[in-house]
Design a protein that fits this description.
It is built from 20 helices and two strands. Helix 1 runs antiparallel to helix 4 and helix 1 runs parallel beside helix 5. The C terminus is likely disordered. About 60% of the residues are buried. Strands 1-2 form a two-stranded antiparallel ribbon. With about 475 residues, the protein is mostly helical. Helices cover about 70% and strands about 0% of the residues.
Length: about 475
């Protein structure tokens, strides 16, 4: 309650920036991998087949699945901040190691390690930003952080335009330098994490009221000083907990399927739908450009930058509406809009009326809605379950969604691209993604959870909670003259 009633301040901006920059460098590294897909099929590089390029992306996604599952659980045991640092270090190391790949299997192994680091951060970052942001601004803050991923993607694909140009660097070196630069830059993110505190909510259940109260006190003092406030608003309510050790992960099925079956079903559908769309389209768009439009491999970054711009503007421009209009309405509308537009654009692609520029513009508009919806889904996922196993459950549902919807998508799309038929790619790939997005939106609209402007503990009561005490409202002064007794 003390964290939720804080006014938005420079301290909150610093937290959003520090966590957002983490996603910036993640997005940079992943965009480099997407941009060089067609480059790696050249004989002077790794000489991969189109299908192997798709398999490499699938193996990377398998790594994110493992990272979310196992390191997400560790974030509940060892702390959100510590696991973010571990995730960043693993991601940076895997990206840097990718620069030294010598064949398909080494490339795939290093991409899997990179994915493990990203998966850990999905669970920890989404949990931490929700636990630090004030209730009324939680949706906006989360979407700003998640959307930052695409700012990094823009930087990443822009760098490949120069580094992969044979007139700048030899073909055999360009892709290696791109990965090496991305990996080195990612290590610098660790320095920024010192500005991010550990979640006081996590401290309460793992370290007790002393450390948690001290952490909140430091935050309150800093905000009073920075914002020149004499006093802060009064906290509304209190929650009584029974602190224990980390809860048994065997409780996870009971939480998902007995306590929150509807939330679990909706979250799974949303995760699977967005995973199939993004992993199918973004990881293979370079192959589409080179295979169907003859775009030179060193120019694909120009078009991928267009997709990244649409994906960035969507969450940032629509972020405030996830707090005002609500999660359920915004996620539902953006999913349905993205699905319908993808179906139309995919059909136009199949009949050959698009060119690289018009298809990129159409894809950017689709991803404007899809990215906002997917960011809203990550926001919602990290609100819907109890504090004690929040990161664990975010990791589980992210992993299950990736396994069901996203894991096979790059290889599936790559196989359809290798077949050389735009109609097969439409019916077997784009249309399936469109239908899944529409289904996700139509499920969210009636069955999603209205979590906006509600404390996290109101959305999902902690498992260790005993009672909730509401603070009594101050007495209202009656109008009119006082009467003597």
């Amino acid at each position: 309650a003390r964290m939720d009633r804080l006014p938005w301040s420079r301290w909150h901006w610093l937290v959003v920036f520090s966590l957002g920059i983490t996603w910036v460098f993640n997005g940079l590294g992943i965009a480099v991998a997407a941009a060089i897909n067609s480059d790696l099929t050249q004989s002077q590089t790794l000489n991969l087949s189109i299908l192997q390029a798709g398999y490499a992306a699938t193996i990377y996604l398998f790594g994110t699945l493992l990272g979310a599952l196992f390191l997400g659980y560790m974030a509940d045991g060892f702390g959100r901040k510590r696991l973010i640092l571990i995730g960043v270090a693993v991601f940076a190391g895997g990206t840097l190691a990718t620069a030294f790949s010598w064949n398909f299997w080494s490339f795939a192994l290093f991409r899997a390690i990179t994915g493990i680091g990203v998966g850990a951060q999905y669970a920890a970052i989404n949990s931490l930003i929700n636990e630090l942001a004030p209730t009324r601004s939680r949706g906006w803050a989360n979407l700003m952080v998640n959307g930052s991923y695409w700012a990094g993607a823009i930087i990443g694909v822009a760098s490949t335009i120069a580094l992969m140009n044979p007139s700048v660097l030899p073909l055999v070196l360009g892709w290696r330098v791109s990965f090496a630069v991305a990996g080195v830059l990612a290590f610098s993110v660790i320095l920024l994490q010192r500005y991010v505190p550990e979640s006081p909510r996590w401290l309460m259940i793992r370290r007790g009221p002393g450390p948690a109260g001290a952490a909140v006190g430091r935050i309150e003092q800093r905000i009073r000083q920075e914002e020149d406030l004499r006093e802060l608003p009064r906290p509304a309510g209190a929650l009584v907990l029974r602190p224990e050790g980390q809860l048994d992960p065997a409780m996870i099925p009971a939480i998902l399927f007995r306590m929150y079956p509807r939330r679990t079903s909706v979250a799974f559908i949303l995760m699977a739908a967005q995973a199939f769309l993004f992993n199918g389209i973004f990881f293979t768009y370079a192959l589409v450009l080179s295979s169907f439009y003859g775009v030179a491999f060193y120019n694909v970054g120009i078009y991928l930058a267009g997709l990244a711009v649409g994906s960035l503007v969507g969450p940032w421009l629509l972020a405030s509406y996830f707090d005002s209009a609500g999660r359920r309405l915004m996620i539902g509308i953006t999913y349905v809009a993205a699905g319908i537009l993808l179906g139309i654009t995919g059909y136009l692609f199949s009949i050959g009326v698009l060119n690289p520029v018009t298809q990129t513009i159409a894809w950017a508009i689709i991803l404007f809605f899809a990215s906002a919806g997917a960011s809203g889904a990550y926001l919602s996922l990290s609100e819907l379950f109890p504090l004690e196993l929040r990161s664990t459950l975010v990791g589980v549902l992210y992993a299950v969604g990736i396994a069901a919807g996203g894991l096979a998508a790059p290889a599936l799309f790559a196989g359809l691209i290798e077949a050389g038929s735009s109609s097969q790619l439409f019916y077997g790939g784009y249309l399936v993604a469109a239908i899944l997005m529409v289904i996700g939106g139509l499920v969210e609209l009636p069955f999603g959870e209205d979590a906006e402007r509600r404390p996290l503990e109101s959305v999902a009561r902690p498992l260790l909670a005993e009672t909730v005490r509401e603070q009594p409202a101050p007495p209202r002064r009656k109008k009119g003259r006082r009467r003597a007794a």
